[in-house]
Amino acid sequence: MKASDLFVKALESEGVEYIFGIPGEENLDLLDSIRNSSIKFILTRHEQAAAFMAATYGRLTGRAGVCLATLGPGATNLVTAIAYAQLGAMPIVVITGQKPIKEGLQGKFQILDIVRMMEPLVKDSDQIVYGRQIPALVRGAFRIAEEERPGAVHLELPEDIAREEVENDYVFPRQTIHRLFASDRAISKAAKIIESAKRPLLLVGAGANRKHIRQPLSDFVNKTGILFFNT
Hints:
Layout: H1 3-13, E1 18-22, H2 28-35, E2 40-43, H3 47-61, E3 65-69, H4 73-76, H5 79-87, E4 92-98, H6 114-118, E5 124-127, H7 134-146, E6 152-158, H8 159-162, H9 184-196, E7 201-204, H10 211-224, E8 227-230
Parallel strand pairs: 1-2, 1-3, 3-4, 4-6, 5-6, 7-8
Helix pairs in contact: 1-2, 1-7, 3-5
């Protein structure tokens, strides 16, 4: 099996339905594998728009959105939207291409260290250097992106690795993310503070707009009748 086929198989195992992006020649093997899969590739006008779309998908569903760009300027165009996703706790997996890493590099044309560039902006950033790494790195990327606190994860797939032949086609099954819950002691303490307050007022922060928080918070406000305001 070609490594790019294995990569897409791993994405399908994660339940990926859409990939937003603009490909380049370094992504051609991966794009061909996507074409023969159940995943729909949505071509955008600009890489930044692709990452914003993936971040919004993550924000609305709680599952990591996926975006794709090529190397160099294509990857740098993602940065603003990646920062938006990371700061807003929106799960997103970013895939970028790269020149061959085991062959001639065509000089230094458009080559940037995208993995290092992404590190300050994301929860994790990795380059895939062997095809057999793909199942573990893809599973890890989605786990890290979706677990608390959700955010962005970056994977770089060089073109020579994408066309590499791999013997094993096994991919790791998607696992349920175990979310943190307040302890009974913390809930009891919060209830006592609210009960003793003369004029309780809720300050609702940006994190309340996440998928798993909206409904419980709405139920709490409706049941208690406590006034609230937003940041």
